[in-house]
Amino acid sequence: MNNKITITICGSVAFARAILTIAARLEKRGFIVNVPLGLELFLPPEKHQELLNSWGQAEGAERKIRYNLIKDYYEKIKKSDAILVINKTKKGIKGYIGGNTFLEMGFAHVLGKKIYVLNPLPKNLGLIYQELLAFQPTILNGDLAEIKVCPHRCVGMLVWRKNKLLLIERRKSPFGYAPPAGHLKKKEFFKEAARRELKEESGLEAVSLKLVTRGRKDNQCRRLKGSWHSWRIYQAKVRGKIRPNLDEVVKIGWYSSYQLKKMANRTKKFIKGEISQNDWQKSPGLEVVWLEWLRKLEII
What we know:
The protein is α/β, with parallel strands linked by helices and 300 residues long. The chain has 2 domains: 2-146, 3-Layer(aba) Sandwich (Rossmann fold); 153-296, Alpha-Beta Complex (Nucleoside Triphosphate Pyrophosphohydrolase). 36% of the residues lie in helices and 23% in strands. It is built from 9 helices and 13 strands. A 5-stranded parallel sheet has the order 2-1-3-4-5, with helices on both faces. Strands 10-6-12-11 form a 4-stranded mixed sheet, covered by helices on one side. Strands 7, 8, 9 and 13 form a 4-stranded antiparallel sheet that branches. Helix 3 (69-78) runs parallel beside helix 4 (99-110). The longest helix has 21 residues, at 46-66. The two termini are 38 Å apart. 32% of the residues are buried.
């Protein structure tokens, strides 16, 4: 499946070695990878400034016009499934993203392409940081293994205690409060995945699982091609103590019907565009797909 997926890498030519190294790693995994034209010219690193000095600012712009470089890369992004932004340290700025890369991220966002960013976004760019957040990128924190292809199969587990539902606040996108849930692994059965995900996210062990609903939802996940999922939702009886996976979970707790309705109202405002992506990430409501499921199950 991976060999049908194309990733276009974006980033400063100062990161030429990292870009070419990462491209090779992705190609080894079966992805088709695009990199900027003539990137090899900037190896070794000292060639970078030498070439820029020889071209000068005016000639650099002229070169982009002459070879139609901006439009050429736009076309590559258009034909790709995702872009990967390589943002290392440059000019003393950690996670540096230059003007050209910012432009390419904008192209990808408008075209509806998945945007991966290798390292955390640079926060010392003023208002540009807010624009970067608006692109809704997936931050890899240096881990290329996080670039995964969606299997389109998901499970969710409803765990109750005294009329309160167990919810986690997700640390990673899609942001929001949700019951423990996740994707199936290769060759994994739904109930196997339900037990595994429940244990991984909450530390609780499923004693029994009862299927309460199933169906397809057009919900976007972090993974490539992840625009829809076939779901199975279980009601779980559990044992053990709550021990959340803090890599995945901001917080975990039991929520009443009143609290669920309050979260649902916040989600409705987010869907209508009344809450910005930045504000939502700081203080979310129910994850959008779970607003739909909890409505269907008449929980809210």
